[in-house]
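Quick illustration for those who missed Monday's session on complexes.
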Amino acid sequence: MIDVAGVRIGGDAVVVIAGPCSVESHQQLLTTAVAVKKAGASMLRGGAYKPRTSPYDFQGLGIEALKILREVREQTGLPVVTEVMSTEDVDVICEHADMLQVGARNMQNFALLRRLAMIDKPVLLKRGPSATVKEWLLAAEYLLSGGNSRVVLCERGIKTFETETRNTMDLAAVALVRELSHLPVIADPSHGTGKQSLIAAVSRAAVAIGADGLIVEVHPCPERALSDGPQSLDFAGFEKVMRGLREPLRQLAPSTPEDFALGAQA
Ligand code: PEP
Ligand code: MN
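Prediction with manganese (II) ion bound:
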């Protein structure tokens, strides 16, 4: 079990981390934090340094976003997680955030992993888009063997030949790493699918297969988001996902009437 400023990941309860892909303004983050907390999230996410495929896309507000994250953390009490892309930013991010995320593209940035092994903050280690489970666990090993035992794994989908979804969510890997490792594992249905409409179903499936938590992108107005709008939920959508997580799974159909009769006699 990993303690993130009082939130325990890897215990009995499923931890939901929610928030925007990128921090865009104080107002945007605060309204989102209040809404997701009300719906049942126990941690806040928000990117300050964004790993964008194109250098012409929004790169994140950097230090300004870190300050916003810290303020909103103080206003709402929600611990925050944000991505670190470079060893240069580790110290300043540690001053502002409760947990540091290693993004999928940096899973095998060994210099970054070695540096994060020496910090006194938990790390959320996302699986690389083309990484095997073994490579992912060995990346975690860099953190553990270097002295940081507070590591949470995150399955966020991998690259396959499928093009209808942004990535292919490898749910079996969630169950597999729980077999192979003692580390908690959470699932990211937002990057795992790239589609708002699939978040509810994949979230339920991830919890059913044993995920210790979820990280979900939520934005006050997804159409206007500066990054990852198509996979971001609005507040009502997130509320619905949370409600779905509280619903029991469907019942199994009964087997044959004969079996029932036998059961009744026993
Ligand atoms: C993110 O969390 O916004 C992100 C960029 O995630 P990933 O590294 O999984 O693509
Ligand atoms: Mn994103």
